[in-house]
Write a structure and sequence with these properties.
The complex is a heterodimer of chains A (316) and B (205). By secondary structure, chain A is mainly beta. Chain A has four helices and 19 strands. Helix content of chain B is 65%, strand content 0%. Classes of the chains: A mainly beta (316), B mainly alpha (205). Chains A and B meet through helix 1, strand 6, strand 7, strand 13 and strand 14 of A and helix 5, helix 6, helix 7, helix 8 and helix 9 of B.
Chain lengths: 316, 205
């Protein structure tokens, strides 16, 4: 009996082929990316955060001419639909006239990188194949995506063994606390895209937004001196926050998986202690130092966001 | 008859002398002992002696609930081989699953507490509802370190609004990320569609 226990312990110990697990995990993630692009499926999922559930419907298909079609709709509250035809994505939201952007990925609850080139993440994240489980009545493979430098949350993925599609995704803190999760509640894989999707081929999409070319990163006279490894600046500009009309200087960073926004603006207060709120895994941190308000928004732990906010300084 | 008994209770509350017979009757009558309790409570309220949080006496309901509880018999001790077997099964589970299950349980408990807190907030002051517009359909939960009533309430509302504005803008910018990346040679008229897009929103406010 003792020998058996020992054998089982050994089989599941970390000594067990760590490198092989990593290679296996990458293969799974590449398969997921292919499935997202190639399969015809209709699905429903629920985003659980803040003790609330947001239900979505999501369908993807490839037309006979090889055009990718995709629809993502929020099912509760005011209508929020996202449509995609190849490299045009349209957002239909309350309080805004519909608009389109040029992109071959929808920006929604599911990280875009999962349908992109996962190898981009390899430098800063480890991929670990954890084990098997049952999700949505299917046999699922569990993959963890963990930042190498421990400054970011871990992403846990449950992938369908049969099709490679996503069945569940959880964002988990390093202490194992579940911060946000996406649970699929329905998945239908079909030979051909549904009629609903094929209508998109003829649909006239809203005009593509052309943003002013103010991406010059030197336009601002401040800089962020600390960022976790792998984050690069995507854009920088000045604009007003829609809700408060407050003018702010803004930089967007991305590490392949996570988007991070830094805002700097003049404040009426001279000093204000740091405060923050969490929307699921998304942290919004805000402080005023020497009359300047610095805010950091992104799916990051408080400590990391605080370090980023503290490192904002005027250029010499 | 009950009128006169109530009067006796009232006298007792006021520390007036009553006969032993009357006392015996009172002690046997449950509704009257309730009245006794209520009179005292009323007196306390009128004197302003009651703590701001009414300490409701739960002992009765708890006693009743306990009486309803089925008797739990101590489980029989498992044989040694059964114990070992159970342990082996636990080992063979992937550790990840256990960790996730534990964290899910943690979240549920947290959720219940959160709910209670929300209910209390509803009574005291309504939850601030800012207009969602970016990527979330609900206002963000509030974790500010110094909850303080009255004068700072306005500051808190302001703070909440600021957080919501930042979150909305972040979500919006992420969606527009691709738009900037693809227009390198943009010599087109500046700020067209998005500027227009923001106008109706401004009118709303």
């Amino acid at each position: 009996m003792k020998a058996l226990t020992f054998c089982l312990l050994f089989a599941f110990s970390p000594f067990y082929a760590l490198a092989a697990e990593s290679v296996q995990a990458i293969t799974w993630l590449e398969r997921l990316s292919q499935s997202f692009k190639q399969l015809n499926f209709a699905s429903s999922f629920v985003v659980v955060k803040n003790n609330q559930a947001e239900p979505y419907h999501w369908a993807h298909g490839v037309s006979e001419d090889g055009v990718q079609l995709e629809v993502l709709s929020l099912l509760n509250g005011p209508r929020r639909d996202t449509l995609r035809r190849d490299d045009i994505v349209s957002y239909i939201e309350p309080q805004l006239p519909p608009y389109s952007v040029k992109s071959n990925q929808i920006s929604g609850p599911i990280p875009q990188i999962l349908s992109g080139d996962i190898d981009q993440l390899a430098e800063n994240y480890d991929f670990i194949s954890v084990g098997r489980s049952r999700v949505l009545g299917r046999s699922a493979q569990i993959i963890r995506i963990v930042a190498k430098d421990k400054t970011r949350y871990g992403h846990w993925l449950w992938l369908d063994q049969e099709t490679g599609l996503l069945l569940k995704l959880a964002i988990v803190s390093d202490k194992g606390q579940l911060l946000e999760q996406i649970q699929f509640t329905h998945l239908d894989i079909t030979e051909k895209p549904s009629g609903y999707l094929t209508q998109l081929v003829e649909t006239e999409f809203p005009k593509v937004v052309e943003m002013p070319n103010n991406n010059d990163l030197d336009v601002l006279n401040w800089q962020v001196n600390y960022l976790p490894k792998g984050f690069t600046a995507i854009k920088a500009n000045r604009h007003r926050l829609a809700l408060t009309k407050q003018p702010a200087e803004f930089m967007l960073f991305n590490d392949g998986l996570i988007d991070l926004s830094v805002y700097v603006s003049k404040s009426e207060d001279q000093q204000r202690a740091v405060s923050y709120v969490k929307d699921g895994a998304t942290l919004i941190l805000n402080q005023v130092v020497d009359g300047f308000e610095v805010s950091v928004v992104g799916k990051l732990p408080v400590k990391t966001a605080q370090n980023i906010a503290d490192s904002v300084a005027f250029k010499p | 008859m009950s009128e006169s008994k109530l009067e006796t209770v009232s006298l007792l509350v006021d520390n007036t002398q009553t006969s032993q017979d009357e006392l015996d009757v009172l002690l046997q009558d449950e509704t009257l002992s309730d009245s006794w309790h209520n009179y005292h409570l009323i007196g306390d309220v009128m004197r302003g002696d009651v703590a701001s949080n009414l300490d409701i006496d739960l002992s009765d309901s708890i006693a009743a609930a306990l009486a309803q509880e089925p008797t739990v018999l101590a489980p029989q001790k498992k044989s040694f081989s059964a114990q070992v077997k159970a342990k082996v099964i636990q080992f063979s589970k992937p550790f990840g699953q256990v960790a996730i299950a534990a964290s899910a349980a943690g979240l549920m408990v947290f959720g219940v507490q959160q709910n209670n807190a929300d209910n209390e907030l509803d009574v005291v002051n309504p939850v601030i509802q800012t207009v969602p517009f970016g990527g979330t359909a609900s206002p963000v939960s509030y974790n500010y370190a110094q909850p303080s009533p009255g004068a700072q309430k306005q500051a808190l509302i302001e703070q909440q609004r600021r957080f919501q504005a930042l979150l909305n803008d972040h979500n919006q910018q992420v969606k527009l990320k691709a738009a900037t990346a693809s227009t390198d040679e943009s010599s087109l008229e500046p700020k067209n569609a998005l500027e227009q897009a923001n106008t109706p929103e401004q009118e709303n406010n």
